[in-house]
Amino acid sequence: MPETARRSDHLNATRYGNRPTMKDVAARAGVGLKTVSRVVNGEPGVTPETERRVQEAIDALGFRRNDSARVLRKGRTASIGLVLEDLADPFYGPLSRAVEEVARAHGALLINGSSAEDPDREQELALALCARRVDGLVVIPAGDDHRYLEPELKAGVATVFVDRPAGRIDADVVLSDNFGGARDGVAHLIAHGHRRIGFIGDMPRIHTAAERLRGYRAALEDAGTQVEDSWMSLGVTDPQRVRRAAEEMLAGPDPVTAIFAGNNRVTVTVVRVLAEHSRPTALVGFDDFELADLLQPGVTVIAQDAAALGRTAAERLFRQLDGTLIAPERIELPTRLIARGSGEVPPAV
Amino acid sequence: MPETARRSDHLNATRYGNRPTMKDVAARAGVGLKTVSRVVNGEPGVTPETERRVQEAIDALGFRRNDSARVLRKGRTASIGLVLEDLADPFYGPLSRAVEEVARAHGALLINGSSAEDPDREQELALALCARRVDGLVVIPAGDDHRYLEPELKAGVATVFVDRPAGRIDADVVLSDNFGGARDGVAHLIAHGHRRIGFIGDMPRIHTAAERLRGYRAALEDAGTQVEDSWMSLGVTDPQRVRRAAEEMLAGPDPVTAIFAGNNRVTVTVVRVLAEHSRPTALVGFDDFELADLLQPGVTVIAQDAAALGRTAAERLFRQLDGTLIAPERIELPTRLIARGSGEVPPAV
DNA sequence: CTTGCATATGACAACGTTGTCCAGGCTCTA
DNA sequence: TAGAGCCTGGACAACGTTGTCATATGCAAG
C-alpha cells in the first residue's frame, strides 16, 4: 500500500466516524482520484481491469460516495422539502406519501417536518429546508404571510402551496374545491328536505374553513333560506366545545334538523353527540375518514382526494424545476359526495 | 461597488438559480469572507459598525447560508433518516411524528421514505440516506437481512430498528410486546368463556405476525385447549381473503365463537363480516384504530403506543450519537388491552 | 518613541466530490 | 516508421463554507 493511503486514513479519522474517501480508495487501488470517481459514477473510459481493482478497494474499505460533497459540486440536491401541519394527522399521510412517490420517480428524496399549525415554526422549517438547498418546497401553510419566501423563490427554489393558499406572495397553489364541496353537501341536505341546518367549523381566518362556510351559506341562499346566527358555530374545533355547540343547536324550541360538519374532527364528535340523542338528525361532514361506512348509520361525507392534492402539487413542482412551467397558477381539485346514510335522514317532524 | 462583486455575481449565475454566497456578501460589504462568516454565525470579534454593513449586504442580496457546504466542512449533517413501510399508514403517522419531535429537540431535520414493504427498496433508501451522510437512521425493517448496513454502522452511523427486529446484524431494536399482547387478548376471550377462537394474521415470516401467533397459541395452551388448524388463517391480509377466511371459520358444524385479528386491517374486515352475521361472535384485534369505540359494539383491541415506539427509538439514536450508549439492546414496550364490548361478547350456545 | 498586548480582520487551506484539460501509450494507416 | 487519432488515466481547480493562523490597528505603559 502506498504511503499516501495510510496518511489519508489518519487524516480522515475523526470525520464521519472515519469514512474512507475517494482519495483513500484511489490510494489503495493505486489509481488516480478521478478514476475512482469514474468507476463510482459508471462513466466510460476505464479498463475492465482497472475497474475491477477500484471496485475491490471500494468493497474492502466499505466506501460510499458522500452525496453532500457531490451536491455541493453539482448544485442540485435532488431533494425536496415538505412542510405540513402534522405528520400524525391521517389526512396528511396519503398526501405526504403521494409527494414522496413523485419525488422518488424523479430520483429525489423527501425531507419533511410538521409546523404544528404555528406560523413561526412553519417559517423556521421552510427556511431551514432552503438552507439545505432543497430543490423545491411543498408547503401546507400554517400562516398567512409568506413574503419571507420571496428571496428563495427569486433564487430559484421551486415552490408549491397545497391545501391552503399562499399569503401575500405569487405562487403555485393546489387546493380542494372547499366552496363547491360544502355547497354540494348542504344542497344534499336541502334536497332531503332540511332547511334548518347547523354549521360547525374552524375559525374563518383559516382559508379552508372560510370557504366551506361560504359554500354553506351559498347553498342555503340558493334555496331561499335565511341563515340564522344560532345555526353557526365558528372557531370551534376541540371536542368539548364541538359537543357543547352541537347540543345547543339541537336543544331550544326550534332546533336544527341537520348538521354540516366543517372537518374531520368535528364530524367525529358530532357523530358521538347524535348517537346520544333520540331525535334523528342528519349529518354531512367535510372530509372522509376511515370506517365512516361502518358506523350506524354510515356517515355521508364530502371527500377530498388527499393523495391527488399531493401528487398534483409535486408534479407541478418538478415541472417548475424542468422549466416547463412559467406563470404561477391556482388549481382546484373537485370533491366528491359519498352518501352513506347519515345525510339522507329526513327532517324530524 | 468593488469590481470583484460584479464578477462574482456573474460567475455564480447558473448555480442554485443564482444564490449569492458569502463571497458576494463580502464583496458588497467591502469586508473579508471570514468576517461575513463570523457575522452569519454570531461569532465574536466584529465591530457593530462592520456587522451592520454585512447585515445590510445580506439583506440586500437575500443571502442564506448554504448548509450543504457547511455540512461538508463540519462533518455532521444534523439530519436523521427514517425508513418506514408506508407514510400513509395511520400507524406510522404518530410514530413518524414522534421521531420528528425528538429530532427537532436535537436540532436535526428528518428525511423519510417508504419502503412499501419491499426489502430492496428498503435497502436502496437506507443506503441513499447514508450517502447523504445522515447522522443516524431509524429503520422499520421490510427485509430480514440487514448485513448491508454493517459498513455504515462501523463508519459510525447511529442506527435503531423499530417495530420489527433487525436481521443478521447486532443493533438497537425497539419493539412492542407482540407476544404478550396477543396472549393477553386471547386470554381475555378465554376469560369470557371462549375456547374455539380463530386467528387471522399475516405471514409468520413477518416477525410481528409470528410473535402474535405465538401469543395466541400460548394463551390457548395455558387454558389447556388444543389449537385446531382450521382455526388459523396465516398470510391472509387483503380484504377479500380475510373475508373468506372469517366466513369459513364461522361456518361449518363446529364454528369458532370468537376471532382474534392479527392486525389493524384484518380487524376492520372482520368487523364487516361479523356485522353481516346473525350469531354474535366475539372479536379482539391487535392494534387500536380511530373510531373503534364508535362502532356497535365498540371493538376491543390490544393497543400499541406508536408514538412511544418512535420516541424511544429516536432518543436511543441520539444517545448513540452522544456516545452515552455502548452495547446494542432490545427494548420491548408493553401493550394495553382496551375493552370496548366486542371482546366481552359471551360464546353463542 | 518604542514595546507590548488585545482586538478586529483577512488570507488561505481544507472538507469530498466532479468537470476540464492535458499527457502518455496504443493502434491504424500511409 | 512516422503521424494521426483514440483510449485511458491523472493533475488541478472549483463548489461554499469554516478553522487556523497571520497581520494590522489602536492604545497603554515604559
From TrEMBL, chains A, B:
PANTHER family found in the cross-reference section: HTH-TYPE TRANSCRIPTIONAL REGULATOR GALS, LACI-RELATED TRANSCRIPTIONAL REPRESSOR
Keyword line: DNA-binding, Transcription, Transcription regulation
Pfam families referenced in this protein's UniProt entry, alphabetically: LacI, Peripla_BP_3
Domain HTH lacI-type positions: 20-74
Name of the protein described by the UniProt record: LacI family transcriptional regulator
Entry-linked InterPro entries: HTH_LacI (IPR000843), LacI/GalR-like_sensor (IPR046335), Lambda_DNA-bd_dom_sf (IPR010982), Peripla_BP_I (IPR028082)
